[in-house]
Fold AraC family transcriptional regulator.
Amino acid sequence: MKPRYELPGIPDGTTFSCFIRRQEAFDFSWHYHREYELTLITEGTGTRYVGTTVERYHPGDLVLLGPDLPHTFTSELYDGMAEAAVAQFRHDFLGPHFFNLPQFRTLSDLLARSARGLRFGHVPAEVHALLTRLPRLETAAQTVALLDGLRRIAFNATATPITNPGYAPAPSTAVRDRIDAVCRHLQQTHTEPVHLTEVAALVHMPPTSFSRFFRRAMGRTLTDYVNQLRVETACTLLTSTALPVTEIAARSGYQNLSNFNRRFRELKGLRPTQYRAAHLPTDVS
């Protein structure tokens, strides 16, 4: 139930890894690692889980995730492939003091901000091209290109944190294990009724103590987190099916339509019908 610790392989002749991840679908694989991870989605849509936050992703989305930040990407089913350009590197991949040098202060600040994860609202074409060709370069050119890519996104004004201010990778293994057990369970069951006593029992805690623990660790209540999962499920159904809103509400875990509409608008700033109109392809009716 806890996130899998991942140890990315490092090719011979270099000190970091970059590759194109291409497969029929990205499955839910909740994990973390000591490396920073720069991920550019090039094909497919789906849901991105980072720390406390659940969001949809689309081609062109770029994120930078700091070390030990639990995350996963899960694909929506469609006729094409799921694909992403990925670079993974440790803070000392160019030496223990490289990012402490004064000329790299901007990059050091970028890496520090990535502790909560960073999403980039706009990815310039040159950054997109740089990251997708990175795995094809020889190793010295890869290193220079990666630094150039980091330099370019360090000045990107559209960068925003992904997780809540109250969230940071848990220093306590026991805390992280409990939170990740709950998150994995909710990812699988959030469209069903969620009962505090049952969720607390997963980590062997009394309900009242668990509520305080969850809010302190996640920066939000259990109810808020479940609503976020359910609304993201509804977004997927709104844009990938022609189901009526009442059916989508039920499939997302809401038995009360007015409650669904209220929660959806709180999180998305739109009514479900407005969201569908803004995001549904013109050939879907």
In short: Residues 222-240 form the longest helix (19 residues).
